[in-house]
Design a protein that fits this description.
The mean pLDDT is 86. Helix 7 crosses helix 11. The chain starts with a strand and ends with a helix. With 381 residues, the chain is an alpha/beta fold. Strand 6, helix 3 and strand 7 form a beta-alpha-beta unit. The radius of gyration is 22 Å and the shape is elongated. It has a seven-stranded parallel beta sheet, sandwiched between helices. 44% of the residues lie in helices and 18% in strands.
């Protein structure tokens, strides 16, 4: 099995898609599977190696984590001719994805794609829905040749099928249960950020308008006085709204900037609740990380979070932008420690069923099926 992968960025600090591709490149060598990766180079991009080929790029205006590359077509063609892939996996519909698509169609190579960024919601959020018909027309053309399209959520699958996409299957992200766990010393985080209040509420993610992060300030102000004065907020992440949020924030809020690995895992474990007001996410990797840490989630009832949070089991789902519902469920959990402990145990138990090895084993099954199907087609040609 030889796989050529085309993606926007190859980094552990960008969006969820990039993180998955980064983990996939760690998984494939363990299975003795050869691959070549073609990636747009951007901020925090991993260093190139013998299997990573990077090209200059600029951010996509709607979603900077996706990037328009300036690929070297001659270099890509030469590399693919030498490597002779028998599967092409495309994780971007932008320029590099077009390179992979052209090669797959011209050589009749099985084609699998990841559809992770829900551009429809971004167009709606930025009030440019008039571009929607053009965007869908392009997406239908781009994906029509794919043997399999993988999506992270049932809601996204439904949207694509309504748009007449074929061969759509669910492929949900995973979590590293060895890194994200509840056994860290909670006092380390309290000492590091000088936290003296009894409860810690946490948000992790990009500080961008479409993430609805401004709702965090409204939720914090809406909490009942007897709860509000016992809560310290940790906002972990970076983005264009950071300065504005800091300026408008309450005194009991800490903005940590971007956190990674154990620094991030310790914050999850030290938190009493994770608060997620996301509206436009397609999958919730940070929510899974919180659950793996034994920290219940209070989140917006969106397509993304519904995949991993079961209302009343490992957290609570609130009507989007309902500060009253967020306030009520936060208060309920903080006022009833036994309930919070029960939710946390169930959160950890669920997250441990979503390991990365399990996620990639399923992807490997998809690859194998496509190869077997191709062999059958050749035999009967």
């Amino acid at each position: 099995m030889r796989i050529a992968i085309f993606t926007d960025t190859f980094t552990t600090q960008a969006n969820g898609t990039a993180k998955i591709i980064n983990r996939l490149t760690d998984y494939l060598p363990k299975k003795d599977i050869s691959f070549q990766l073609f990636s747009a180079k951007g901020p925090f991009t991993n260093q190139a190696s013998h299997y990573v080929n990077q090209f200059p790029s600029v951010p996509f205006f709607l979603y900077p984590e996706c990037r328009f590359a300036a690929p070297n077509f001659i270099k890509i063609k030469r590399k693919l001719q030498d490597f002779q892939p028998n599967i092409i996996h495309i994780a971007t519909p932008l320029n590099l994805g077009l390179c992979g698509l052209y090669h797959a169609k011209s050589r009749k190579i099985p084609l699998i794609g990841s559809y992770d960024t829900n551009f429809k919601e971004y167009l709606t959020y930025y009030n440019i829905e008039q571009l929607s018909s053009v965007a869908w027309k392009y997406m239908r053309w781009f994906y029509r040749s794919f043997d399999k399209i993988l999506v992270p959520l049932q809601g996204v699958k439904q949207v694509l099928e309504e748009q007449k996409f074929q061969n759509v299957s669910l492929w949900t992200p995973g979590v590293d249960g060895a890194l994200f766990h509840p056994e860290y010393d909670r006092f380390d985080v309290r000492l590091k950020y000088n936290i003296k209040r009894p409860y810690i509420l946490t948000y992790v993610g990009c500080l961008r308008p479409e993430k609805n992060v401004s709702a965090l300030l409204e939720i914090a102000r809406h909490l009942p006085p007897h709860i509000k004065h016992q809560v310290h907020w940790i906002i972990a992440g970076d983005g264009p709204l950071k300065e504005t949020l800091q300026k408008d924030s309450l005194e009991h809020m800490t903005f940590t900037g971007l956190l990674r690995d154990q620094d991030l895992a310790k914050v999850y474990a030290a938190s009493d609740l994770f608060v997620s007001p996301f509206q436009t996410e397609t999958f919730e990797d940070v929510v899974l990380e919180s659950l793996a840490s034994g920290t219940p989630v209070i989140g917006a009832d969106s397509a993304g979070i519904q995949t991993v949070v079961t209302h009343g089991e490992n957290g609570y789902l609130c009507e989007t932008n309902s500060t009253e519902e967020f306030s009520n469920y936060i208060s309920l959990c903080l006022e009833h420690p036994d309930l919070r402990k029960k939710l946390g145990l169930q959160a950890r138990r669920y997250a441990l069923t979503q390991t990365w090895d399990r996620v990639f084993d399923r992807l490997l099954t998809y690859y194998t099926i496509l190869l077997e199907k191709e062999k059958m087609n050749i035999q009967f040609a």
